[in-house]
Amino acid sequence: MSFIHSKYKLLVNEKKNTEIFQLKPDIVIAKCGIESIIIDTKWKSISSLYNRHGVKREDLYQMYAYLTRYPNVETVVLLYPYNNRIYNPNECLESWVLEHDENKKIKVYSVNLENEKLTIKSLRNIIKDININSKIYK
Which of 7, 20, 61, 64 is found 20 to 30 A from 75 (Cα to Cα)? Predict the structure, then answer.
């Protein structure tokens, strides 16, 4: 498993041939050189009290763009900082599949940022959880 960083142009001005919108994930994880997981970090506060834990529609559209632009990626993760309004911090908080492709998933997790050891442990658990449920790693 390796971490790579790639970006794609989504929109290019026809007259000027300049990009106006670029898709650049925060973290791209690859296995054997094949991009398989994208993690997008958010710094917004979410809560178990809200519908979809308060995940914004715009963030879901962004994750959809990742899933459709990166053909080998099966799972994209919205990663939020843990706070005391999240009831199950060590579990996947939300999970959706694309209507036309049930192998493509958007998942929501939180990560504890109180100290470096907890953060690393949380990230490892998230990746382990995704790998267990992903056909690319079976």
Answer: 20
Report DSSP letters for the chain, one per residue: -EEE---EEEEE-TTT--EEEEE--SEEEEETTEEEEEEEE--S---TTSGGGG--HHHHHHHHHHHHHSTT--EEEEEEE--TT-S-TTS--EEEEETTEEEEEEEEEEE--SSHHHHHHHHHHHHHHHHHT-GGG-
pLDDT at 137: 45
35-75 pLDDT, tens digit per residue, is: 889 999 999 999 999 999 999 999 999 999 999 989 999 99
Domain boundaries, the chain: 26-137
Give yes or no for a contact between 64 and 98, defined as CB atoms under 8 angstroms apart: yes
Sole residue written with tokens 């529609």: 57
Instruction: Let me know: does 105 contact 126? Beta carbons within 8 Å.
Output: no
Per the listing, tokens 């990166």 go with: 70
pLDDT confidence of residue 58: 95
